[in-house]
Design a protein that fits this description.
The protein is of the alpha/beta class. It has helices spanning about 20-30, 45-60, 80-90, 105-120, 130-140, 175-195, 195-205, 215-230, 245-255, 265-280, 290-300, 310-320, and strands at about 1-5, 15-20, 35-45, 65-70, 100-105, 125-130, 145-150, 150-160, 165, 330-335, 340-345.
Length: about 350
């Protein structure tokens, strides 16, 4: 287990990443939070895989705990699930000395974090992320949220966890498509900040069994730590984390409107490929970069172009995004793999960056 410390205005916290962490978790929690009760929040799929063994280990460590589960999927990041869990915590008399444990992917992490941010005006919580996306992205940085019918993540808080414990062994049970979704964000980190990591991804596919996966996850956490430390409240440098996301969000919105299945990771993969093809054509990006990105995305089982989509339709999705209101759009582009920069453009010019 190796740790990375993430600074935060609300208090620094450590992100521990490595194999076998779940087995050690009860002892770690008992030492870190003596006298506390634990509210373990998970989704039914993750609880089905890991809940029983974890509960047995909590019991062996003489920890006092209750487990609460929600259905898997984005639907659980809702105000109604949020409200009912607050009532459940109150009815079990959890108090401010107690600790919420969010065991699962980004959905459980975002929901659990927002519950912890608001229950009794804030209780302590730890993240135990079990998807690749959650281990490299959503469990780090302190953003918590639930969705509204009007859009994703519209209600939430900046509320960092007390610690993050990412057991890389849990990634072995992910569906290949869920692992691939996380790979889109991992590839993004390499592209914005780490040319060596990108070269590693070009050499051979990364799988849940790859011996260097824990090290690469830690590298992503360190990149996010550096970027978030410079801009915890997301007003400048943190925008670099949105590489591929402007077009990606447009694709997600378009697919939602057409009731076509689309995941965030796949949409971001297409977004990274499309914007780099355009910026290379506009001579803002080193020649050959777009093809290198396509190859790495395909190796990860991700789509590598927006072929089959109508650019004009995606554009409509991009321009209604609340983040893109105003006369200028802040695009994230690459000079070359490992080097990203912000590139403000006029809204009217966006189509050029999609074809
Ligand atoms: N807070 C942030 O900074 C931030 C950043 C990025 C994304 N997010 C949020 O994260 C969410 C997406 O996260 P996600 O991709 O982890 O989705 P998720 O939490 O829905 O997990 C995906 C699926 O994998 C299953 N799963 C989780 N761990 C498993 C395991 N070890 N083995 C087998 N199955 C497992 C889950 O039950 C679920 O069905 C979105 O709501 C997004 O808004 C937040």
């Amino acid at each position: 287990m190796t740790q990375i410390t993430v600074p935060s205005a609300a208090g620094a916290y450590d992100v521990h990443t490595g194999p076998g962490l779940l087995t050690e978790l009860p002892e770690i929690l008992a030492a870190a939070f003596p006298e506390s009760r634990f509210a373990v929040l998970s989704d039914t799929r993750v609880a089905g895989l890991y809940g029983e063994a974890l509960a047995a280990a909590f019991t062996r460590a003489s920890l006092s705990f209750e487990t609460f589960t929600v259905p898997p999927g984005e639907g659980s990041k809702s105000l109604s699930v949020f409200a009912s869990l607050q009532s459940v915590l109150a009815s079990h008399r959890f108090n401010r000395a107690d600790v919420l444990v969010a065991l699962g992917g980004g959905v459980v992490g975002d929901l659990g974090g927002f519950i912890a941010a608001t229950y009794l005006r804030g209780i302590r919580y730890v993240q135990v992320p079990t998807t690749l996306l959650a281990q490299i992205d959503s469990a780090v940085g302190g953003k918590t949220a639930v969705n509204l019918p009007e859009g994703k993540n519209l209600v939430g808080a900046f509320y960092p966890p007390r610690a993050v414990y990412a057991d890389t062994d849990t990634l072995q049970t992910l569906l290949p498509a869920t692992f691939a979704d996380g790979m889109a964000e991992l590839i993004k980190y390499a592209l914005i900040r780490d040319a060596d990591m990108f070269a590693r991804l070009e050499r051979a596919p990364l799988t849940p069994q790859s011996p260097d996966l824990p090290a690469l996850i830690r590298r992503c956490v360190a990149i996010k730590r550096d970027i978030v430390a410079a801009d915890e409240r997301d007003t400048g440098e943190r925008m670099l984390l949105n590489f591929g996301h402007t077009i990606g969000h447009g694709i997600e919105r378009l697919c939602a409107a057409k009731k076509q299945p689309m995941t965030h990771g796949r949409a971001v993969a297409m977004g990274m490929a499309a914007i780099t093809a355009a910026s290379e054509r506009l001579e803002l990006t080193e020649a050959g970069t777009a093809q290198r990105i396509r190859t790495v995305l395909e190796m990860a089982g991700l789509p590598a172009s927006i072929d089959g989509f109508d650019a004009q339709e995606i554009l409509s999705g991009v321009l209604v995004d609340k983040k893109n209101i105003g006369s200028a759009l802040n695009l994230v582009l690459l000079r070359k793999p490992g080097e990203a920069f912000l590139h403000p453009i006029a809204r009217a010019d966006m189509l050029q960056y999609m074809e």
